Structure prediction request, 337 residues.
Amino acid sequence: MKSALTHAVSPAPPAVTIVAGPWTQEARQLAFDRAVHEHYLAYVTRALKQRNWSPWHDLPLDEMHERGHLLSGDTANLIEGFMGVEEFVGDYVQEGLIAFRESRMRRNIHLQWGAEEARHGVAWELLLKHSHARTEMELTAYLDKIRDSHWRQQQHAGVESPLATTVYAMIQERTTFFHYQEVRARVRAEYGLPIAPTAEERQRGYEIGASEACRLVTQDELAHHSLFLHIVRSALKYFPSLTCDTLAQVFAGFSMPALRFIPKVRTYLRAVKRTNIYSEKIHEEKVHKPVLNSLGFDDQQAFENAVQRSHYLPEHFNPEDVQLSRTGEWLVTATHA
Prediction:
């Protein structure tokens, strides 16, 4: 069990044919590594061809300037808080590289992810600056305070292995995706725009002002969630009991990263409360349930069923012989050697 528990992902495997049975831990690890490699290639291809944007070159800053007076104080406070969380990206990358130091593939995934995340804090900074919501001096002081703090992965319960880190990232990216969708909706309402892009926006290929910054960051977060979701699905296939236990552990202890370290955190939290952009109930409906559904479960009870019953799966079963129903039942056949 050591390989699966401590190194949920290994370096990209050589060109080896996986033969039928017996499915040892080593065989599962090899198959899992191959699946992760495929997920990585698909992710990078889309990132370079469809999401290759720059906050310094691809944001309509003039429109942010023109419409900045329309943004409410709560919207600006929310965006400032988002910038604060995003600006700990250096710590997130550093901690991840330590966790994945023995895996070339996961190291490269983490570096690509980190490069994309680094532009989010800049996008929020430029939005606040060019919308006149914050002065350059205020932004500099805010970012200087972040530099003096340090986020560590150990601050989150259950995030103690590469697999747990992946599960955490899957949930966290879904959460930020929802946050940024909601703030985009606020921006468009305050601009006097409909929630869907107008005919003019569709024709020119980008949204108006701050809405475009929200759109670009949101599409990144959804892509990141999708990548980690695919990896967790593959882990569930090849290491079902370990993955179920890890999911349960991370679900139970999840909280957003670095939130307590951001400057003016009370201002941000008051804006969250006033706008009702997030709460435990909202997390349950907009994050937890969608994640469970995407993993193949109807509800929390189905997930708990799967966790409990995963420990009774036979040893050396062929992963192709096992199906997980939406109600959490493990269905084992014997069609493969």
User: Anything to note?
Assistant: The radius of gyration is 21 Å. Residues 1-19 have pLDDT under 50 and may be disordered. Strands lie at 322-324, 330-332.
